[in-house]
Amino acid sequence: MSASFHLAQLNVATILAPLDDERMRGFVEALDHVNAVADVSPGFIWRLKDDAGNATALRPFGPDMIVNMSVWQTAEALFDYVYRSGHKAYLARRKEWFSIPAEMHLVLWWIPAGAIPTIAEGKRRLNLLRLNGPSPEAFTFKRRFPAPDVVPAIA
After folding, report:
1. CB 136 within 8 A of CB 148
2. Coil vs helix vs strand at 121
3. Which SS3 state, helix, strand or coil, does residue 47 take?
4. Euclidean distance between CA atoms 91 and 95, whole angstroms
5. Strands ordered across the beta sheet of 44-47
6. What's the half-sphere exposure (Cβ side, CA atoms, 13 Å) at 79?
7. Radius of gyration of the chain (CA)
8. What is the DSSP letter of 145?
9. What is the rounded distance in angstroms from the CA atom of residue 23 to the CA atom of residue 96?
10. pLDDT in tens, 97-145
């Protein structure tokens, strides 16, 4: 992997109830802890946040969908956070809080080191993945692509 690139990720989830509903309490109570684990995880660079310190108020995909977006040094660092940290216990409980996705809900892509992705870029990448399947522009953990060799010139 080139140190000139970092991995961006976006994932979306459809909530089963409003966040202030009792059914969502476990998720809401875990947010600060799960985000704190991410913030100190090896390879973590950045995550999308609103004024509350998380991204639950941001609803670019619709009123019942929450979004998460972050940047990591490598795909391995993100994978370790998702599946080998305290996050994993909450991931195992996701069916308590979110509907089963009918289509791809997670997308990964490479960005130049130091760049911060936008929600619009994440939406575009997720749509690319949904339409075309994994490619170097939009991929998954299961079908990863290496970082480009050259940083694109800024026009």
Report:
1. yes
2. helix
3. strand
4. 9
5. 44-47, 65-72, 5-14, 106-112
6. 8
7. 15
8. -
9. 8
10. 999 999 999 999 999 999 999 999 999 999 999 999 999 999 999 999 9
Contact predicate 82/7, CB 8 Å: no
In terms of Cβ atoms closer than 10 Å to its own Cβ (0-12, 13-18, 19+), residue 145 is middle
Token digits of residue 4: 């000139």
Is the distance from CB of 69 to CB of 55 less than 8 angstroms? Answer: yes
Domains of the chain: 5-132 (3.30.70.100)
Distance CA 9, CA 23 (A): 27
Whose structure tokens read 């390879």? 43
Structure tokens at 66: 């929450």
Long-range contacts of 113-122 (CB under 8 A, 24+ apart): 113/3, 113/4, 113/5, 113/6, 115/6, 116/46, 116/71, 117/8, 117/10, 117/69, 117/71, 119/10, 119/48, 119/58, 119/60, 119/67, 119/69, 121/8, 122/8, 122/10, 122/67, 122/69
What's the pLDDT tens digit per position in 44-69? 999 999 988 999 999 999 999 999 99
The pTM score is 0.91
